[in-house]
């Protein structure tokens, strides 16, 4: 699965071995079981998730009823930008609809990667 992330980035730029390792260090790969909540309503988001395999559902609960607003599948990013950037509580859930493998994108590690390899900045921000 780790190679999948490197292969995705390689579609946009040729990578050196150091850059490949930098990607793997900055964006750890993890598999979550079906029904795992990656983000819950009321939590402040710390990470974004790039789906490598599986599916993440974005939903909120309104008067006790679940309202689905999006699904994220392979090579799509699931992120609550308002919560992540403004440190506001999330208004929705991000939940795995099946066993799901993601690259975990943490702002600090991402920015460190951009400092070390500046050419990643534009590619990652457009793709993620």
From TrEMBL:
Residues 11-67 form the Cyclic nucleotide-binding domain. InterPro entries: cNMP-bd_dom, cNMP-bd_dom_sf, RmlC-like_jellyroll. PROSITE patterns: CNMP_BINDING_3. This is Cyclic nucleotide-binding domain-containing protein.
């Amino acid at each position: 699965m780790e190679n999948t992330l490197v292969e995705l980035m390689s579609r946009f730029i040729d990578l050196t071995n150091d850059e490949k390792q930098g990607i793997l260090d900055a964006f750890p790969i993890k598999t979550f079981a079906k029904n795992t909540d990656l983000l819950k309503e009321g939590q402040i988001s710390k990470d974004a998730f790039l789906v490598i395999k599986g599916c993440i559902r974005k939903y909120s609960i309104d008067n006790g009823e679940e309202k689905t607003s999006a699904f994220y599948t392979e090579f799509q990013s699931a992120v609550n930008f308002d919560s992540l950037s403004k440190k506001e509580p999330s208004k929705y859930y991000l939940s795995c609809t099946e066993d799901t493998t993601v690259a975990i994108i943490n702002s600090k590690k991402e920015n460190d990667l951009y400092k070390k390899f500046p050419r990643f900045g534009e590619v990652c921000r457009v793709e993620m």
